[in-house]
What we know:
Strand content: 25-35%
Radius of gyration: 17 Å
Number of domains: 2
Strand order of the largest sheet: 4-3-5-6-7-8-9-10
CATH architecture of the largest domain: 2-Layer Sandwich
Largest sheet: 8 strands, mixed
Amino acid sequence: MGEYSIYLETARVVAREAGDLLKRDYHRPGEVFFKGEVNLVTETDTASQDLIYGRLSKAFPGHDFLAEEGLNTHSEAEFRWVFDPLDGTTNFAHRFPVFCVSIALEHRGRLACGVVHNPMSGETFWGERGAGAFFNGERVRVSKVADLGRSLVATGFPYDIRETRTNMCNHDHFLLKAQAVRRCGSAAIDLCYVACGRFDGFWEMKLSPWDTAAGALIAEEAGGRVTDFAGRPVDIYHPEVLASNGLIHQAMLDVLSTA
């Protein structure tokens, strides 16, 4: 039990409740709206956000909140919840069962705890600053693969890829350097997969704080290294992230620097 356990336990309960909502809506058609040409939002995104905000703001009045669907409160509070009510909306809209609820807490600007819950697989990851990372109650650690050429890595692409081709060059270089490259469609899940050793590394660009907050903390608490592409400590308000087991981190930085 750590300093932030009371907050983490509440977040876990709320994440599961929001996950039940996502799972319910997954099995029935709903309306899909377009924020951009390939950027989707569904009625379930907003319903999940309303549920999470309602539960957390009632449990912790006076805290601030930042979430994907336009929620951003400013009271200069010491605590700020950063969450994505449905990370992997495109997967959800196409009935591809890889999406999650991601909830993190900042304390005085530093990540304190986080939870990522995939309701379709029943998998819940969580972590607390200084207290480790866990997967369905069992402590997890990053992999021990030390060779990029034997590594399974993951990435994602931004919504403006048709115009900018962002990350395509990086992707091609990693295809030639790593054992294989995967794309799940949820940065939060990718980071948790690094934490539990399913992936050895993950990189992505043009991310938002709610995409990475919980997963970055979980990956670090599992013994991983999380930075930007220059090797600086992770900043969820910076749009690029590189996470790894630490052993292949420099090799991944080298690929990103030359791509």
